[in-house]
C-alpha cells in the first residue's frame, strides 16, 4: 500500500476531525461533570440497581425476540417477491425514523388494555402488556428489530447463492440449507445486527415510557431513570448516564473485537 493511499486529502481530514468531535465532545462534557467522589454511592442506590437490572433483562430479551422473528422476516423480504413487498419493507423500517413516542402510542392503541388487539387479549386471558416488564420488552423489540432486519436482509441479498444451490442439489432440505449453509454465510452480519438491536433496545426511551410507563422496579429502565433524575438529582442523572455509556462502549468494543476483527461480510 502506497503512502498516498493511506493519507486522506486535507479537506477530508479536517471534516472528519470535526465529525469525530461531534461524538467526542459530549462524552468529554459528561466526564467533566461527573461527581467522581460520590459516584460509588450514587450507583449503589436502589433506583439505579433496579433500572440497570431491568435494562439488561429487557434489552437482551428484546434482542432475542428480534432475532427469532427478524431473521425469517429478513429472509422473506430478501428472497421472495409478493404484492406489497415494498410497502412491507417501508413499514418494517418505519420505527427507525418514527419518533419513539409515536411508536409507543401506536403500540398502546393496538395492544393496550382498550386497544385493537389488547382488549380481546385482556378479556380472554387477563394478560395486560402495558405497564409491565412485557410491555418494556415489546416496546424495545419494536424499535430495535428494524436494525437487525436491514442488516440481515442486506447480507442475504449479497451472498453467493450458488452454495445454497449446491446443497439443495445434494438433497438437503430448504430448512437444512438455511441452517447449515445460509446462516453460517451471514453470521458476521447477523451478529452485527444483534449488537445494533441490543444497543438500540438498551437506550430506548420514548416508546417505553409511552407504552409501559415509568414504574420503579417494574418498567423504569436506565434511560427513564435518567430523565426523572435530571430535575430531582442531577448528580444521579450524570452517574447513570456515565453507567449507560460505559456498559454500551464495553459491550460494543468487546464484541466488535471478537466478531469483526479481520473479517468482512
UniProtKB/TrEMBL annotation:
Q: Which GO terms describe its molecular function?
A: molybdate ion transmembrane transporter activity
Q: How does it sit in the membrane?
A: Multi-pass membrane protein
> What residue intervals traverse the membrane?
57-78, 90-111, 131-152, 236-255
- A GO cellular-component term linked to this record: plasma membrane
Chief localisation class: membrane
InterPro entries under this entry?
A: MetI-like, MetI-like_sf, ModB_ABC, NifC_ABC_porter
**Which Pfam family, any one, appears in the UniProt record?**
BPD_transp_1
**Keyword line:** Cell membrane, Membrane, Molybdenum, Transmembrane, Transmembrane helix, Transport
Q: Which CDD domains match?
A: TM_PBP2
Domain ABC transmembrane type-1 intervals: 52-255
Cellular localisation:
Cell membrane
Q: Which domain of life is it from?
A: Bacteria
The function of this protein is:
Part of the binding-protein-dependent transport system for molybdenum; probably responsible for the translocation of the substrate across the membrane.
Q: Which PANTHER family match?
A: MOLYBDENUM TRANSPORT SYSTEM PERMEASE PROTEIN MODB (PTHR30183:SF3)
UniProt record similarity statement = Belongs to the binding-protein-dependent transport system permease family. CysTW subfamily.
Database matches in NCBIfam families: Mo_ABC_porter, modB_ABC
* Protein name as it appears in the record: Molybdenum transport system permease
Q: Which organism is it from?
A: Ilumatobacter coccineus (strain NBRC 103263 / KCTC 29153 / YM16-304)
